[in-house]
Amino acid sequence: xxxxxxxxxxxxxxxxxxxxxxxxxxxxxxxxxFLLALAFLTVALAGTAVTLGVIKLSxxxxxxxxxxxxxxxxxxxxxxxxxxxxxxRLPRILFGILAGMGLGIAGAVMQxxxxxxLASPYTLGxxxxxxxxxAVAILLGQGFxxxxxxxxxxxxxxxxxxMVIVAxxxxxxxxxxxxxxxxxxxxxxFSACTTLLEYFADSDAVKGVVFWMVGSLSKxxxxxxxxxxxxxxVCIPILVWxxxxxxxxxxxxxxxxxxxxxxxxxxxxxxIISSLIVASIVAFTGTxxxxxxxxxxxxxMIVGGDNKxxxxxxxxxxxxxxxxxxxxxxxxxxxxILPIGVMTSFMGIPLFFCLIMRRRKGYW
Amino acid sequence: xxxxVKDLVFAYSGVKILDRVSLELEKSExxxxxxxxxxxxxxxxxCMNRVLRPQSGKITLDGIDIRDMDRMEIARxxxxxxxxxxxxxxxxxxxxxxxxxRPHGGWRSxxxxxxxxxxxxxxxxxxDLAMRDFTELSGGQQQKVVLARALVQEADVLLLDEPTSNxxxxxxxxxxxxxxxxxxxRGISALMAVHDLNLAARYADRILMLKxxxxxxxGEPFSVLTAENIREVxxxxxxxxxxxGRPYILLKGPAKKNQYLLNAASPxxxxxxxxxxxxx
Lengths: 364, 280
Known about the structure:
The complex is a heterodimer. Chain A is mainly alpha-helical. Helices cover about 75% and strands about 0% of the residues of chain A.
């Protein structure tokens, strides 16, 4: 063993610094290629998904509709095709991709700032807190923001639960186990609150809550898409901009402080931003589990540990997973469309077990 | 860069870990901090770069109070090598070293950062590990990588918390020689907590001896590393010899048990012992 190690070091000592630099440049370049490949896959998925559906339209017709909306003079579209493709299929697939991106990047950020591979919007109870906020809005009509009642409530409650977790994480000696357990406690607490509300509400309203909670992309329209687009366009660059700080923070709080990072502030800021992302997705779709947990791990397997690549990678993998799951949910037993939250769990759990079985030493 | 610490007091939930510690670190000087476990060596270092907030006392860099500086400014002046480090997520050795450039850069590393990291990689002989995963390395290799990260930080003062505890004897000497050479070539200074009295004797210009959170003695290696001091602070019998103008310590064994307990019977020492046990 020892002599083998020595041989190795003797051989590689001959490698010059230029060679290492070239190796590193290649290493970084390969990561950009992975990201580009994921982006290409996402576009390909969207391009394929718009051509699929109960109402049979040819590929040509579908793309004529899309082009018609950009260049109305050159391309014609029938009214039915316009309605199906432009008002239903396209916003749905785009919303699926954006929601998956948001959940993926939020999960990646939560895992890295809480130094816990199990952290995700779902396991930390942020989703169920947002769900409770939405239930309050639906059942009691009480809320914080007038016209965006459900989204506003969902956001406020997501924020409350994430602040509790931040407070626990900052408490000295809080271990990953304690943090996950408190996340689970928060999840149960808000589930219990939601159940209590439902218990006293009338059955039609309860049905509404159940349908809302189960997770669905069917509410997606261009308006929701614009809101989510805006939230992601603001939040994702901030998170990616902080990616070097996240790298430093995963070497431990002390090291990060000694390298000039204001650990507490960065942790709070990124938890608030990722809660904002999660809340604005959950508010429109209901609870969608496992994307935020699994996407970052898959991304790390593909691009390694550098958050500059993990964050965009998690977003792209999350988008692919969620939009892909939605395509399956729509077409696995037509004309019934399975709820997306159920579908991501069914697809996510085997994937997750697969990851646990294959996990490398020390991390996932 | 002159670093001054004046009357530093730090306590964890009422128990004083550091009690009015003062020290001065001149430019181009290596100060060795020695003392038994729980004497406050690590706490002292962590108070100095404000990882911990001392209850009272003042730390100045060239006359400027570090409380008036933000973290990035402190990080550009004080480099830190912690006792142990772990990564919760995978990172290559090269990326880990590059983190040392964070206080100098924006949101990502530049090509000059990469050049500097490469130079340090070579200096510490870590070339063959560059693309390996930090968490897969041995404790000694990790320690070298962390030292490399502190060197690439280009700080004026290096704060080293047992930088050689996981290294084999050859690597210990190499690491110390590199730190010495950095101090001489770049005119930086270093403060290092060490357990090995002979390493301290050989590589430090001055030595600060801590006992129970107080400065027990400070000064030239010969004046601090005496048989009496070692017996008093560590409870260990030792013979101090001279080799190449530096003291050389031969440890003979624990001082007689009854005598040690006799010493501990005084109320002052008792409270210190209590502290030792707490932190062990």
